[in-house]
Amino acid sequence: MGRRSVRGGLLPLAMSGALFLGTTGCGGDGADDGLPDDYKVVSATQLCGGRAVTAEASKALKVITGSSRFEASGERNSVQEAALRLAEAAPLATRTEDVCLIFTPMNTRHFELGITWQVADDAPSGPSAPEFTELKMGELAVTAPNKSYVFFACKSDKLLGPSSAVHIVIGVRPGGMPTEPEGDDGELKALKDAYATVAHSFSLAMAKELGCADNGGLPARPVLLPA
After folding, report:
1. What average pLDDT does range 121-148 have in this prediction?
2. Integer Cα distance of 211 and 55 in angstroms
3. In Å, what is the CA distance from 215 to each residue of 41, 57, 210, 220, 222?
């Protein structure tokens, strides 16, 4: 995918299944429930390296997925690994990359959630697509009942690019074959807030992992009031 902003459009979800074989791969004959012997289920705060999901984001994940327990993340399925890849690639990254994939446990209602990163050419400008509500986080955050993106600028000695700020976009959206969310206005608003909360949590974790000055301008807690 060429380098472009998501304003007025959508970022594709990168699905790197090879990263996650460590979580669901064969470990033995399996237990009576048919799961591999090495299969683990964890709480949300243990996902994606263990420093990516805040307590608020944990509650938000339950709103989105209906579950408070998830498949354990593989060793390379983490914010720490994603930050290393971003630091090496910026500012020449040309496509969307995975930060982490989150799955509800096997033998439960399946839900797959993808968190991605992308380096943008510059700060977001122009109107957002009509489906999004704009929020004041970082350079900009936008959210909808089935996806959210946070834009922030990072200046850090860890980035292998020029001394000027690198513009980063963190996205959260369902994987697989997502369906349009349904519900009344209150339920759709709760989903918007939940996606924005998860996007903020991963954005802040990435900013801290990258050593971004002032945490990329991101607040300590998600801002959910429309900008």
Report:
1. 94
2. 22
3. 31, 18, 9, 9, 13
